[in-house]
Write a structure and sequence with these properties.
Shape of chain A: elongated
Number of domains of chain B: 1
Radius of gyration of chain B: 17 Å
Strand content of chain B: 25-35%
Structural class of chain B: alpha+beta
Number of helices of chain B: 4
CATH superfamily of chain B: Dimeric alpha+beta barrel
Largest interface: A-B, 9 and 10 residues
Mean pLDDT of chain A: 81
Low-confidence stretches of chain A: 1-8, 84-116
Number of domains of chain A: 4
Order of helices and strands of chain A: HHHHHHHHHHHHHHHHHHH
Number of strands of chain B: 6
Helix content of chain A: over 70%
Shape of chain B: globular
Distance between the termini of chain B: 20 Å
Strand order of the largest sheet of chain B: 2-5-1-6
Mean pLDDT of chain B: 90
Order of helices and strands of chain B: EHHEEEEHEH
Oligomer: heterodimer
Helix content of chain B: 25-40%
Structural class of chain A: mainly alpha
Distance between the termini of chain A: 68 Å
Number of strands of chain A: 0
């Protein structure tokens, strides 16, 4: 293929294949030996070979299969070079390649997805194993399933790159040495337990990006990574209601991304957002996925939160939102997963539905417990409800506390502005 | 793959003594540990097990310049002490965690699950 536009297209397709196939290739390779390091090395070799071969010969019809087969060959080469002393590549790989069980390059795309489905799930489950520390699970999932580089992950989580690299090395060693397998638990109870850990990791990645409020582009990208993971999980586990619920929740929240900041980059609270800037296609997809989830009749915290987000998405304005319904949903959420943070949100919904005093009645036990004293949104909700109840002076003090607690400079400015308004 | 299920307890020497007395006096065919051990044996995963005396009875030794330095007590003075262990031979970490979870629980008990290495030169002596 000639340089110029064709070469560029080749590079773009490589990039796309990289993002789409990286996890699948690593998963196929890691399944046998249970060794992420060997799988990563072989996959990296294959992607490097692709960047040369595809620029020269064009992109093959099935890039994923090409990459997988090449990666298998690289793994076998590595095994041969290091000889039997190496523990990094299982001799079984040799057997599989010899038996022709590695996917052939001309395999249809549908077959590929099917053969890789379980491998990729196995990889996600291994990366999110509860025997690994939470921040390690997040880093592993982003590195091996979504294919972010170590540098990108380090930047997103504001950790020095060598620190993150070291963490990944230790995690890979723990996976290999402690016998964490790349297969799904056969026991249903254990599968459900492990899936909870997987979903929690995905949601953590999403919130990390969402909470940054566009403060840095790299961090905001984490929302897209999380949604990508959510879509993959939903495709692989279509019968799991909470997996669908989480995807719906992320889509519905992310739909508001463009309206969450004003032109000066300051955060805009839900009440003041320009709803015409909400992403209708994300809302439509989120609503559709939520309907699929609810149809499975197995309610859970993600579905309830998605249902709340859906009510916001379909409301014409903050005032015209179905607040009584939202208050009920927060009540149900609080019963399923009791948390003072849920009570703070419920107090605002009750305040909108039944007035400031009713909202304050919900909030007062949370305030009295002192458990969330350093949680900015608690004081913001307090200020909001006091204002609604006609107590502007006390509201001002609450806004000031909220500003004091906020770590995000833009949020702080917004709260201080409100503080001034009230005074 | 072999895993050591290391049972750590916060029981004091007196509490542990009381537990031991009760265990010894109990009907030896139905106690929870008896049943646990039997289940592991019947599943074909049990590779070994020991129960230790309280760490208060420990003696520690260091050799310095050819001299033996003997001290009263455990290597590390901590609230948690190693009470005993089971050695299980299972498929993977999840299976080992399952056996750890099935153990009868003492108050304040933590089970540390650690993979055992295999194929080391000294281990070949045992195989001979």
């Amino acid at each position: 293929m000639a340089a110029g536009p064709g070469g560029l297209a080749g590079a773009t397709r490589l990039e796309r294949a990289f993002r789409e196939e990286w996890g699948a290739v690593v998963a196929t390779l890691a399944r046998r030996p249970g060794d992420l390091q060997a799988a990563e090395d072989a996959a990296a070799d294959a992607f490097a070979a692709a960047s040369v071969a595809w620029a020269r010969d064009g992109v093959p019809p099935n890039p994923g299969a090409w990459l997988t087969v090449t990666a298998w060959r690289k793994a076998v080469d590595a095994y041969r070079v290091s000889g039997s002393r190496s523990t990094s590549v299982d001799p079984l790989i040799l057997g599989e390649v010899a038996a022709g069980r590695a996917p052939a390059p001309d395999l249809a795309e549908a077959d590929m997805t099917e053969t890789l489905g379980d491998d990729r799930l196995g990889l996600i489950f291994a990366c999110c194993h509860p025997a690994l520390a939470e921040e390690v699970r997040v880093a592993l999932a982003l590195r091996f399933v979504t294919g972010l580089t170590t540098r990108e992950i380090a930047a997103a989580f504001v950790v020095p790159e060598p620190t993150l690299a070291q963490r990944l090395v230790r995690a890979k060693r723990k996976i290999r040495e402690s016998g964490i397998r790349f297969t799904l638990p056969s026991d249903q109870k254990r599968l459900a337990e492990r899936l909870r850990s997987v979903l929690a990791v995905v949601y953590l990645v999403f919130n990390e990006g969402f909470a940054s409020g566009g403060e840095s582009l790299i961090r905001a990208d984490l929302c897209d990574e999380a949604i990508w993971l959510g879509r993959l999980l939903h495709r692989l586990l279509p019968g799991d209601a909470e997996t669908a619920g989480l995807l719906a929740l992320m889509l519905l929240h992310h739909a508001r991304a463009a309206a969450r900041l004003d032109s000066a980059g300051r955060p805009v609270l839900l009440a003041g957002q320009d709803r015409t800037r909400w992403d209708q296609s994300r809302i439509a997809e989120g609503t559709r996925v939520l309907d699929e989830a609810l149809a499975l009749r197995s309610p859970g915290p993600y579905q309830l939160q998605a249902a709340i987000a859906a009510l916001h998405s379909h409301a014409a304005s903050f005032e015209e939102t179905d607040w009584p319904q939202i208050a009920l949903l927060y009540g149900a959420l609080g019963r399923l997963a009791p948390s003072p943070v849920v009570e703070v949100n419920r107090s605002v919904a009750v305040g909108m539905a039944d007035g400031g005093l009713a909202g304050l009645a919900v909030l007062s036990p949370v305030l009295a417990s002192g458990a969330l004293d350093s949680y900015g949104p608690l004081h913001a909700a307090h200020g909001f409800l006091l204002e609604k109840a006609g107590q502007p002076e006390q509201a001002g003090a609450a806004w000031a506390r909220a500003a004091e607690m906020s770590g995000n400079p833009a949020v702080r400015d917004e709260l201080l502005r409100r503080h001034g308004d009230t005074l | 793959m072999k895993y050591a299920l290391l049972i750590y307890s916060q029981a004091t020497a007196d509490e542990y003594g009381a537990i031991l007395d009760a265990t010894r006096q109990a009907d030896d065919s139905h106690g929870p540990w008896v049943e646990y051990t039997r289940a592991a044996r019947d599943a074909g995963v049990l590779a070994g097990a020991e129960q230790l005396n309280h760490s208060e009875t420990a003696t520690s030794l260091r050799v310095q310049g050819g001299d033996r330095l003997i001290t009263d007590g455990p290597f590390m003075e901590t609230k948690e002490h190693l009470l005993g262990f089971y050695l299980v031979d299972v498929e993977d970490l999840d299976d080992a965690l399952d056996w750890a979870a099935r153990m009868p629980a003492h108050p304040g008990q933590t089970v540390e699950v650690r993979a055992a290495l295999s194929g080391l030169p000294w281990q070949r002596v045992l195989a001979d």
